[in-house]
Design brief:
22% strand; alpha/beta; globular; Rossmann fold; 5 helices; seven-stranded mixed β-sheet
Length: 195
């Protein structure tokens, strides 16, 4: 599957980004949404993205070159985070500026914790990516923490609150049980391999 995953660099300033020589798949979500765990599950690795119990652990744009064929881009989490205030204030502009650059983004993966109640911050994110006309998918993560009967209810709550389009690809995942990971991986790779 993924024979080689190479850490490229951590970027705090966009001028330090590597040239857009490869297609990019981009992971974005709130602080503490399980983004690092999802990246590791997607790559079928244990410690590529560093996992922390501290919200906001990812403070930079982290790039990994996978199979010498595409970049996996790990963006800082948005929302509440335990980090210096100056860094937290910089994150939104870092994320926004990166997403507006003319880079070869094949898939933008927006991750939500299905246990939460979607709020204005989540809605703002959806409006922003719709405005950019970026192709994105939604991943509802941590489904193992909910009773099966509540999963569909919570999913519909997000869809309604965030006004998600009816044809939007939506995935339900659990990094703990690996449920939905293979389906998500296959879909993302199908987009990358279209080149």
């Amino acid at each position: 599957m993924f024979k080689k995953v190479q850490f490229v660099k951590s970027v705090y300033n966009l001028k330090d980004l590597p040239p857009p020589d490869f297609p990019e798949i981009v992971f974005l979500g709130r602080s503490n949404v399980g983004k690092s765990s999802l990246i590791n599950a997607f790559l079928n690795r244990k410690k590529v993205a560093k996992i922390s119990s501290t919200p906001g652990f990812t403070k930079s744009i982290n790039l990994f070159l996978v199979n010498s064929s595409f970049y996996l881009v790990d963006l800082p989490g948005y929302g509440f985070a335990k980090a210096p205030q100056k860094l937290i204030q910089r994150w939104p502009s870092l994320i926004e500026e990166y997403l507006t650059l003319p880079r070869n983004i094949k898939v933008l993966i927006l991750i939500f914790d299905l246990r939460r109640i979607p709020d204005e911050l989540d809605l703002t994110l959806i409006k922003f990516v719709n405005y950019l006309k970026k192709f994105y998918i939604v991943v509802f993560n941590k489904i193992d923490t909910l009773a099966t009967s509540k999963i569909e209810t919570q999913k519909n709550k997000f869809i309604e609150t965030l006004k998600l389009p009816p044809d939007l690809p939506i995935f339900l995942t659990s990094c703990k049980t690996k449920e939905g990971i293979k389906k998500l991986r296959n879909f993302i790779l199908s987009k990358v391999e279209k080149d």
